[in-house]
Design goal:
Layout lengths: L1 E2 L13 H7 L3 E2 L11 E10 L3 E10 L8 E5 L5 E6 L2 E5 L2 E5 L11 E10 L10 E3 L2 E2 L52 H8 L14 E3 L3 H4 L12 H11 L3 E6 L21 H16 L8 E6 L6 H4 L9 H9 L1 H14 L4 E6 L3 H4 L2 H15 L11 E4 L32 H14 L7 E5 L20 H8 L23 E2 L6 E5 L55 H9 L6
Parallel strand pairs: 12-13, 13-14, 14-15, 15-16, 16-17, 17-19
Antiparallel strand pairs: 1-7, 2-9, 3-4, 4-9, 5-8, 5-10, 6-9, 7-8, 10-11, 18-19
This protein binds beta-D-glucopyranose (BGC).
Length: 589
């Protein structure tokens, strides 16, 4: 028997009766005549279908005696398989599917109903199952009386005057219908990015991958034309297009904190360090209004929350050689913590929203003095402004960065930690870091069900310069430099890195446990920052880390920047970079 996960991670209580009833789960709708016979009705619908997947909804109604536990069974006729389900515990053996109740929804009164759903795979034909049973009784839509001695149905519905009528009680009802991993199924392909990708030769090989939609300024909520990174599509347009595509999930980046990106200039934003009220009312509130629109309930809406913010308050503040004045300001005025808390609370109140907070990358917080304090600060932010940890589905690492997923030819030994490249870091790749940081976040108070996602948009490091085995001769630094996949000069380099390639294509559950997905949050081909000063009206500064001739600062070990030349401002399309990313893709295209 193949077990299919159906953990419901967000044990959220109802936001209101309407939300609970609308969302399904166990909802008591109305009292039917009381009965003394088992009975059920089932409505099965395929709500989305693509190749090779589909989404199925199963509405089950108890038209007979109350259930204290239930088991729904049915068979697929065309070899379909359930990949992941919700509302009950799905398992499958051959063509036979069983859905058993969760701990919280075993009791279903007469007249009560259940909303179950699943993502499945199909091939060729996808016909609906023709028969459903609950606790062994075939669902015919009316109660079936059982002969107490033989157990066979006698056929006559009966009523039982002693059965207690059901009551409506949303607060003790089921949690929302959030799924364990929102990345299962089909991701929204942003048509604006797709068109840019296809404008470059060979781009159609990757242009159907889901990438995130960055809401990087207030104007982007309604859509902008003429700005460097966004097109005319606003949040509502993207949500409508996602529904039309039959997508299961869509990804947005929430990226507009006051005093944004305090340790770099290339992605500075429009809001000054004190403009927290504007952030709330002119930015988060209108985004939340669109995301909460009933037209988009069928989508899983994933928000990547404020990259390059909280970790800066640990690593680039007073007492560190890497401090910046703006990071000190943002630490002391509390507006990063409060902004993140507000965003989590407001967006997390929407039943089909999933929030992932940015958790930097191993080459930023993988050192002992950064690791634990960052986890604790993330927990503080998740509890600020009326938020709580239940608003957090998980964390993203390596957003818009270049750190390798794994370094197959280097082991993090005490000796290797002394190399310039590793420099005493505990980690040397994102997979090991993401797993360890997940454990530390749970210690800091986050749910043990949080999932990590890894931005693999530009961390492939393939092409001819990729080593094919460890280098075992020379000094320690020569050995490490000759063995590493990540070809950067220094782990602190982040702008338009020369030699980078597309990484793993986006996919859910890549393994090991605890990693929800590989994602492309930074849309490949969009610049990290201009290589020379380019005046603009978007708040984007010129950061020397994007100048190929810059010899560095304390944050990159005073190394060369490793940036490509000829880059436009951050977010703008950089065709030459996209070509190189395809050329150096790993896995190769
Ligand atoms: C920029 C944004 C852009 C994003 C994605 C960021 O560095 O500041 O404007 O939308 O990258 O390319």
């Amino acid at each position: 028997m193949r077990l299919v996960s159906s953990r419901t991670r967000k044990q959220r209580l109802a936001i209101g009766a309407v939300a609970v009833l609308g969302l399904g789960g166990l909802s008591v709708i109305q009292a039917l005549p009381a009965s003394a016979a088992a009975g059920c009705s089932v409505t099965y619908r395929v709500t989305n279908q693509w190749t090779p997947g589909f989404q199925g909804d199963i509405a089950v109604r108890n038209v007979g005696d109350a259930w204290t536990s239930w088991s729904l069974t049915f068979s697929f006729a065309n070899g379909q398989t359930v990949q992941q389900g919700w509302g009950g515990r799905f398992s499958q053996s051959g063509s036979n599917v069983t859905v058993a109740n969760e701990g919280w929804n075993g009791n279903v009164a007469n007249g009560g109903s259940l909303s179950l759903g699943f993502i499945g795979n199909w091939n060729g034909t996808n016909s609906a199952p023709t028969s459903f049973s609950v606790n062994g009784t075939v669902c015919t839509g009316s109660p079936v009386t059982t002969n107490p001695t033989t157990g066979n149905p006698t056929g006559n519905p009966t009523t039982n005057p002693t059965t207690t009528p059901p009551t409506t009680n949303p607060t003790t009802g089921p949690p929302g219908t959030r799924v364990d991993n929102p990345y299962v199924g089909r991701g929204y392909v942003n048509p604006e990015w797709k068109a840019k990708a296809e404008s470059v030769s060979g781009g159609s090989r990757v242009s159907n991958n889901p990438t995130a939609v960055w809401i990087d300024r207030i104007a982007a909520i309604e859509g902008t034309s003429g700005s460097s990174s966004n097109g005319p599509m606003g949040v509502e347009d993207h949500l409508l297009a996602a529904v039309q595509q039959g997508a299961n999930y869509i990804q947005f980046v929430i990226y507009n904190l006051p005093g944004r990106d305090c340790a770099a200039l290339a992605s500075n934003g429009e809001l000054g360090p004190t403009e927290i009220d504007r952030y709330k009312t002119a930015y988060i509130d209108p985004i939340a209004a669109y995301q909460n629109d009933a037209r988009f309930r069928s989508l899983r809406i994933i928000n990547i929350i404020e990259i390059d913010s909280l970790p800066n308050l640990i690593t680039n503040v007073s007492g560190r050689p890497t401090e910046t004045a703006m990071c000190n300001t943002m630490k002391s005025n509390g507006n990063y913590v409060n902004g993140v808390g507000y965003a989590l609370a407001k967006l997390g109140a929407i039943p089909n929203v999933y929030n992932y907070i940015d958790a930097a990358h191993h080459g930023w917080i993988g050192w002992d003095d950064n690791f634990g304090p960052t986890a604790e600060l993330l927990a503080t932010a998740a509890r600020a402004q009326g938020s709580n940890i239940a608003n957090v589905t998980g964390f993203i690492v390596n957003t818009a960065n270049y750190s390798a997923l794994s370094e197959p030819y280097i082991t993090v030994t005490e000796q290797n930690r002394q190399s310039k490249w590793i420099d005493w870091n505990r980690y040397n790749d994102e997979l090991s870091f993401a797993q360890a940081f997940r454990t530390r976040l749970v210690q800091a108070g986050f749910s043990s069900n949080i999932g990590m996602i890894i931005d693999t948009s530009r961390n492939g490091w393939g092409g001819s310069a990729r080593p094919t085995g460890p280098r075992t001769t020379g000094t320690l630094d020569e050995q490490i430099n000759g063995s590493k996949i990540d070809r950067r000069i220094h782990k602190g380099n982040w702008c338009n890195q020369s030699g980078a390639g597309l990484g793993e294509r986006p996919r859910a559950n890549p393994g090991p446990a605890g990693i929800d997905a590989y994602v492309w949050v930074k849309p490949p081909g969009e610049s990290d920052g201009s290589s020379t000063l380019i005046p603009n009206n978007e708040g984007k500064g010129f950061d020397q880390m994007c100048d190929p001739n810059y010899a560095g600062n304390a944050r990159n070990g005073n190394s060369m920047s490793g940036a490509l030349s000829g880059a436009p401002i951050s977010g703008a399309w950089f065709a030459a970079q996209f070509s190189q990313l395809m050329q150096n893709a790993y896995p190769p295209l």
